[in-house]
């Protein structure tokens, strides 16, 4: 390089370092906006073989993360997005056209609800919301133009369960696709594809990454559908960036160890709270009085059902505030799915805009606290909650 100028040398030094063509033990982060080619033949071959060109089109970190997600969800192929919402919007924008009809669970994540009503509404897609606790409500909403049936596995924050097998059968009888959000439950607890779901979406920002340091989303479905969704995602600008994909892959690689622990801790905490004198109700599918217990036992495997739970204390906001301040470990956080236990108060956050009467019908009262359980020792965590609940004495 000695024959070139200082500026040129500075630009090309380090281009070929020892190790560039070795097989690293773990996947490196490909922080590059593009991959270069040396001539027309290579350019043609790369495009023809869907190789790596520009970062928004394809990137090895998204490919690698997609492979792990496909393995965990038991699906053919996965695509990686900039967020859970990116995964949801890109998929819906690909699959739905003006005049199509969608049936959506009325108990759904607030921003998914807004996508259905605001974004799809603008595109001329009609939506019917139905209470999925009774599959007959879905059957009654089906029309000839119903293209998609959408649900989460467990609803936030009441943890009501959807009979995935029954809904998948219904969808397929009528030629509709069944799309399931597995964010709360994760494939470590349940794999919706095994129950007949056609498309599974995950917000990787939550339990799947688990380390609360990256935002991302995924969809898992057939290679044919991924082939349609990928070009739309590229146009919408929703594919995940390499660094977040790399970080999330680190998290996802340990999901099958972390999540059974978190779900076990959640079960123990649910049991301890259910026995507490100041707690009138605990929502968690592991409890014997869970209203859909038989369905839960049929659907969830040996790893557990969910690391989320909610419980009801007296409707005294001042005391609830004192309770939160008294906890040693959990902090309030407007997210879920981290290594540390966090909590939220649905009436003053996620369900703030819902009228009180409607909220109460949904089982959400000012005394409800939602908990995302981490990987703390179950006894330490239960003792912390029991101690903080003394503020209600
Ligand atoms: C069930 C569910 N789905 C989707 C999302 C959206 O995920 P993200 O925040 O990664 O866009 C969330 C976010 O909280 C969620 O709780």
Automatic annotation (TrEMBL):
Q: Gene3D superfamilies of this UniProt entry?
A: Aspartate Aminotransferase, domain 1, Type I PLP-dependent aspartate aminotransferase-like (Major domain)
In Pfam terms, one family for this protein is Cys_Met_Meta_PP
Q: Tell me the residues on which N6-(pyridoxal phosphate)lysine occurs.
A: 206
Cofactor dependence is on: pyridoxal 5'-phosphate
Xref: InterPro entries: Cys/Met-Metab_PyrdxlP-dep_enz, Cys_met_metab_PP, PyrdxlP-dep_Trfase, PyrdxlP-dep_Trfase_major, PyrdxlP-dep_Trfase_small
Keyword Lyase (UniProt): yes
Q: Which GO terms describe its molecular function?
A: homocysteine desulfhydrase activity; methionine gamma-lyase activity; pyridoxal phosphate binding; transaminase activity
Q: Name one GO cellular component term.
A: cytoplasm
One GO biological process term: transsulfuration
Keywords from UniProt, A to Z, are:
Aminotransferase, Lyase, Pyridoxal phosphate, Transferase
Alphabetized PANTHER family for the sequence: CYSTATHIONINE GAMMA-LYASE, TRANS-SULFURATION ENZYME FAMILY MEMBER
What family is it from? Belongs to the trans-sulfuration enzymes family.
The name this protein goes by in its record: homocysteine desulfhydrase
Q: Which gene encodes it?
A: metC_2
């Amino acid at each position: 390089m000695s024959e070139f100028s200082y500026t040129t040398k500075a630009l090309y030094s380090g281009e070929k370092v020892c190790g560039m063509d070795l097989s690293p033990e773990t996947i490196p982060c490909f922080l590059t906006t593009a991959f270069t080619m040396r001539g027309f033949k290579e350019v043609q071959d790369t495009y023809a073989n869907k190789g790596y060109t520009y970062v928004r089109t394809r990137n090895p970190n998204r490919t690698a993360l997609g492979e792990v997600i496909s393995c965990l969800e038991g699906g053919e192929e996965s695509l990686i997005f900039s967020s859970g919402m990116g995964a949801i919007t890109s998929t819906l924008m690909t699959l739905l056209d003006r005049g199509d009809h969608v049936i959506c669970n009325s108990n759904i994540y607030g921003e998914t609800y807004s996508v259905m009503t605001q974004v799809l509404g603008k595109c001329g897609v009609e939506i019917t919301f139905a209470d999925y606790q009774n599959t007959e409500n879905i059957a009654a909403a089906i029309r000839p133009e119903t293209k998609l049936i959408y649900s989460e596995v467990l609803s936030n924050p009441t943890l009501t369960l959807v009979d995935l097998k029954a809904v998948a059968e219904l969808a397929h009888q009528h030629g509709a696709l069944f799309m399931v959000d597995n964010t709360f439950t994760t494939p470590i607890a349940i794999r919706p594809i095994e129950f007949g779901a056609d498309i599974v979406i995950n917000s990787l920002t939550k339990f799947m990454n688990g380390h609360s340091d990256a935002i991302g989303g995924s969809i898992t479905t057939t290679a044919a559908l991924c082939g349609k969704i990928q070009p739309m995602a590229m146009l919408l600008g929703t594919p995940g960036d390499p660094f977040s994909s790399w970080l999330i892959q680190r998290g996802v690689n340990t999901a099958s160890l972390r999540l059974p622990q978190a779900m076990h801790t959640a079960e123990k905490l649910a049991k301890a709270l259910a026995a507490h004198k100041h707690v009138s109700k605990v929502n968690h599918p592991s409890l014997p009085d869970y209203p859909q217990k038989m369905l839960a036992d049929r659907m969830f495997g040996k790893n557990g059902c969910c690391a989320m739970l909610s419980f009801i204390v007296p409707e005294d906001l001042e005391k609830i505030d004192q309770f939160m301040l008294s906890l040693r470990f959990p902090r309030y956080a407007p997210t879920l799915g981290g290594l540390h236990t966090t909590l939220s108060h649905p009436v003053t956050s996620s369900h703030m805009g819902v009228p009180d009467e409607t909220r109460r019908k949904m089982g959400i009262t000012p005394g409800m606290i939602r908990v995302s359980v981490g990987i703390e020792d179950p006894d330490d965590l239960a003792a912390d909650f029991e101690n903080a609940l003394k503020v209600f004495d």
